[in-house]
Design brief:
Layout: E1 3-7, E2 30-34, E3 38-42, H1 48-53, E4 56-57, H2 64-74, E5 80-83, E6 89-90, E7 94-96, E8 100-103, E9 111-114, E10 123-125, E11 135-145, E12 158-161, E13 164-174, E14 181-184, E15 193-203, E16 210-213, E17 215-220, E18 223-225, E19 232-235, E20 242-244, E21 247-249, E22 254-259, E23 265-267, E24 270-272, E25 277-282, E26 288-290, E27 293-295, E28 302-306, E29 316-318, E30 321-323, E31 330-334, E32 343-346, E33 349-351, E34 358-359, E35 364-367
Parallel strand pairs: 3-4, 3-5, 5-8, 6-9, 7-10, 8-11, 9-11, 10-12, 11-13, 12-14, 13-15, 14-16, 15-17, 15-18, 16-19, 17-20, 19-22, 20-23, 21-24, 22-25, 23-26, 24-27, 25-28, 26-29, 27-30, 28-31, 29-32, 30-33, 31-34, 32-35
Antiparallel strand pairs: 1-2
């Protein structure tokens, strides 16, 4: 465990520096300070004060080396790595381990950028341990620029495979070659893993803003906008997800695409100006949509479809507005498994859609138009 000699700074009541170096700042009395459970890294363009306080300072080239060193140090008993203000350049992934918190100083202060030609994920979960041990990761308070114009291969902003108990908050992810957020369950992790996301912006990525498969997730105030394909792609029959006030705007595909999941809930969500539809429920069972707005989409606001293998059954859309869509407010589709059955459309506001407000194919519990 490293120690430093700290010479007291006038007008500073308490300062803890965690380093293996000796800092001579000025003042009179000296004391030893033992490294705490938080490690910090500064960058080439960080302030002089931040560089003095940091455990390590990056030089602006392959800055993932120093960041990964601190994360590995955190596995020796320290739990949190703070990236101070600055714009680190990354040539390889930052590798995060179970029970580690990677934090920044805010998405306008700490800005990670992928170097030209790196062609890799920006943050990647370690896979050296078994799937059952991949848990307890927190990532927060910084932004990512995937620099997709200067990449030629797969590159996600945050990629975690087989992890559960994930907490993501206050992040902005832009311009990744593939997906902004990519979360995939492991084959030996039945039921997937749990993800909680707050205030995440995932914009202008080459495929999806959010790509989540085999995952029980809970997203609040998260935004998937201006992505080349879908804003949100959520899949797998075992998944059950909650979406609270989430949005999807101006994506090249669907705003939200949910494939063969069950018991998802959407509360006050919005999808508008998407190319292939606002919300696409493909082979879903017992999905609930309460409130929100799905409008201005180039096809239909909400599409309830049977997939090739699963009939769309017992989905409920209640108290929701679908308006100014090019085709329909709500459209039912049979993609092979059979006509959608026993779905409910009630107390919705459907106005100014170019086509018929609601188009149903099969049996239904109840539908009306307001």
């Amino acid at each position: 465990m490293g120690q430093i000699t700290h010479i007291e700074v006038p007008n500073v009541t308490k300062a803890i520096w965690e380093s293996n170096q000796t800092h001579a700042i000025g003042g009179e009395s000296a004391l030893n300070v033992v490294r705490s459970a938080t490690l910090s890294v500064a960058f080439n363009d960080s302030s002089p004060a931040s560089k003095v306080m940091a455990d390590l300072v990056c030089d602006g080239t392959a800055d993932e080396v120093q960041i990964n060193q601190l994360i590995r140090d955190a596995q020796d008993g320290y739990k949190k790595v703070v990236m101070l203000e600055g714009t680190p350049s990354l040539s390889a992934p930052i590798i995060i381990y179970p029970y580690t918190w990677l934090d920044g100083m805010g998405y306008r202060a700490t800005k990670l950028t992928l170097a030209t030609g790196a062609n890799c994920d920006i943050i990647q979960g370690a896979t050296s341990m078994g799937v059952s041990s991949r848990l307890g990761v927190t990532i927060s308070n910084f932004s990512i620029d995937g620099n997709k114009a200067n990449q030629t291969g797969a590159s996600n902003g945050i990629s975690l495979t087989g992890y559960r108990n994930i907490y993501l908050h206050h992040l902005r992810i832009d311009n990744c070659y593939t997906n902004g957020i990519d979360l995939a369950g492991g084959p030996n992790n039945p039921g997937g893993f749990q993800t909680v996301g707050y205030w995440i912006m995932s914009y202008s990525n080459g495929q999806y803003g959010f790509n989540v498969t085999n995952d029980n997730c809970d997203f609040h105030w998260c935004f998937g906008n201006t992505n080349t394909s879908d804003g949100w792609n959520i899949g797998d029959m075992d998944a059950s997800c909650l979406f609270w006030n989430c949005q999807a705007e101006s994506n090249g595909g669907y705003g939200f695409q949910i494939t063969e999941g069950q018991m998802h809930e959407f509360h006050g969500c919005k999808a508008w100006d998407n190319t292939t539809g606002g919300l696409y429920l493909n082979g879903t069972v017992r999905v609930r949509v309460f409130g929100g707005f799905y409008g201005g989409d180039a096809t239909s606001g909400i599409i309830v479809a049977s997939s090739a293998t699963t009939v769309a059954t017992d989905n409920k859309i209640i108290g929701t507005q679908m308006s100014t869509n090019t085709n329909n407010g709500i459209l039912e589709v049979n993609n092979g498994a059979g006509v959608p059955t026993d779905n409910t459309y009630k107390d919705n506001l459907l106005i100014s859609n170019t086509g018929t407000d609601i188009v149903t194919l099969g049996t239904y519990d109840h539908w009306d138009i307001h």
